[in-house]
Amino acid sequence: MSKRYSYLEDEEVRKFKSFDEFNSFAKDRKEGDLWIETACNDTVVIGVENNPICATQLIGNLYHYQGDKETFKKTMATHGLLLQVHDVNDTLTYDIRDIGLSSIYSRAGLLGRTIRDVNNALGSILRSEWLTKSLSLYSDPAKVLVRDGKVSTMLSSRYNVFHSADLIRSLESYLDDTWKGWSFDAGLASHEIIDASFLLENRNEEAKKALEDLGFKCRRVDIFARFVTSDIGDNAATLYPILKVDGLNIMLGEAIKVAHTNKDGLSAWDDGILKFSSLLKKGQESIEALATKKIRNSGGCLRYMACELKLPKDISLEVGAEMDAMYISGCSALDIYYYLHEIVSRYIQGKDISPVSKLNYEETVARSLGMDFKDVPFEWE
């Protein structure tokens, strides 16, 4: 049986070079996704020990198992848990993708790291019994996403499903109407996130001149709209205004975010993206305000901000030392903001961390746009 165009292995990250590829992937994923509405106490977690020799026999004991022998063996070798789901027509058993486990714990009311650590130490059989017993206490309706043959998430009934294909269709229409000459820059998709950047070509020279007039020297400035969403509850449907300055992405503070719990559904997204231009302008004004604030202790200020934001210490100290050497007579708060992004860029470059984790680091720096850039000779102990 051939796999869908949008099929991804569990840890796979697919990258896209064209809008057509990206859009086709999103449309195919929408067609392939299966959302099952059920009650928490109508689900059963099944545990299997890691015993590949008995895989065929164990599969035979499962009720309407939807996977294959190789997938089952992989489940045995990892967490050893499957989910039996009752819907209106049938009872089906699915493998659980690693990223889906935390949502099942949440539906079972097993919140907090300590509880999960204790639960994980029990082994797959006892863990499945504890999860099933906990789920049986809740009659709350839930939505289970089965994607590429595995359970990817189990969310509350308040969760609105925003298919990325529908979000992209609205975004494309907005870009066509408002940003003539836009182009697709790059995109990626995993089981956790969909992420794409769109180059907005008609104001780049204006943005570069505005920064240079304020004393911030740069060779190239590009304006982007960055679209991010998640179908598993990790991220709201989001549109970020981005300045790419000499190849480094700089988030302009606030973003348009429409939570999947929003009662207005996709119409909230359609309304929200119409505010992108004004949000971009607000972000550029915030950047320009940073450019006018002078900082005497360049490295000290950067180290202070990095410490407050809990950025990686070693790289923060490295970049702080570089700033001390480059800006002997001081710098602007915009320089600090730029190099905070540089810390994150260096940290995530080449590291084997998920796209969601990378985005979280970038959003952490974006929040600093509203902070007080303290001009202090700070040393990070």
General form? globular
N-C termini distance = 58 Å
Q: What oligomeric assembly is this protein in? A: single chain
Q: What Rg, in angstroms, do the CA atoms define?
A: 24 Å
Extract low-pLDDT stretches.
none
Number of helices: 14
Bin the strand percentage.
15-25%
What's the number of domains? 3
- The structure class reads alpha+beta
Task: List the main descriptive attributes of the protein structure presented here.
3 domains, alpha+beta, 6-stranded mixed sheet, 22% strand, 381 residues
Question: What would your notes on this structure say?
Answer:
There is one protein chain. The chain is of the alpha+beta class and 381 residues long. It has three domains: 34-156, no CATH class; 164-291; 294-370. The chain contains 14 helices and 15 strands. Helix 10 (276-292) packs across helix 13 and helix 11 runs antiparallel to helix 12 (313-326). The model has no long low-confidence stretch (mean pLDDT 90).
Give a quick summary of the entry.
By secondary structure, the protein is an alpha+beta fold. It is built from 14 helices and 15 strands.
Map the helices and strands.
Layout: E1 14-16, H1 19-32, E2 34-39, E3 43-47, H2 55-61, H3 69-77, E4 81-86, E5 91-96, H4 101-107, H5 113-120, H6 124-136, E6 141-147, E7 150-156, H7 164-178, E8 183-189, E9 194-200, H8 204-213, E10 221-229, E11 237-245, E12 248-251, E13 256-258, H9 266-273, H10 276-292, E14 294-295, H11 298-308, H12 313-326, E15 331-332, H13 333-348, H14 355-367
Helix pairs in contact: 1-7, 7-9, 10-13, 11-12, 11-13, 13-14
